[in-house]
Design goal:
Blueprint: H1 6-16, H2 19-38, E1 43-48, H3 57-63, E2 68-74, E3 78-87, E4 90-99, H4 102-105, H5 107-134, H6 145-155, H7 159-162
Length: 173
């Protein structure tokens, strides 16, 4: 799991001019970390399709320039790849599949999805605790669009006093 704040996400979107490209870059950065840390043990990673893409070969080659890449399958439903790379303790091997509705097909992906949702709730709890301590009478938010709009209207007059830019609270896309 990797927490990506609105500020970091907005910076990534600004660099790529594309929300889906920004999101997949976070996923591939995390995959690279997992490959480096655990690839010598042999790793299988199941990932939901990213931004409606069907083909990941080019992106994987950019993120893993030292690895040999083998395409197992590429289709609208599922695309699979093997990454092989020399490591200090032996060969790093990561099998990665991008699959439509991956959380329905792989228990680990479903579990990761649940952990991410729980982590979001924990982050929102801390977020609300801090903000409610800064703005008297402020009602907490779950952060979703409708209630988030109400919450933004309530905090907007306080942003300058707190030295917080709106872009740090709201995704650009």
């Amino acid at each position: 799991t990797r927490v990506v704040s609105e500020g970091i996400f907005n910076r990534l979107v600004g660099q790529t001019q594309n929300k889906a490209t920004a999101a997949v870059s976070v996923t591939l950065d995390h995959l690279h970390h997992l490959h480096q840390a655990f690839g010598e043990r042999g790793l299988f990673v199941g990932i939901d399709k990213q931004g409606g893409r069907d083909f990941y070969r080019e992106m994987l080659m950019r993120w893993f320039p030292e690895a040999k890449l083998k395409v197992l399958a590429e289709s609208a439903k599922s695309s699979g790849y093997v990454l092989r790379e020399a490591g200090a303790g032996g060969e790093k091997v990561t099998v990665v599949y991008f699959r439509e509705k991956g959380d329905r097909g792989w228990f680990a992906t479903a579990l990761a999805s649940m952990i991410c949702k729980y982590l979001r709730e924990l982050c929102m709890h801390s977020f609300n605790a801090w903000w409610c301590g800064q703005v008297a009478g402020l009602r907490p938010t779950a952060g979703y669009y409708g209630d988030g709009s109400r919450w933004l209207t309530d905090v907007e007059p306080h942003l300058g006093r707190l030295g917080i830019q709106r872009e740090m609270l709201v995704r650009v896309r």
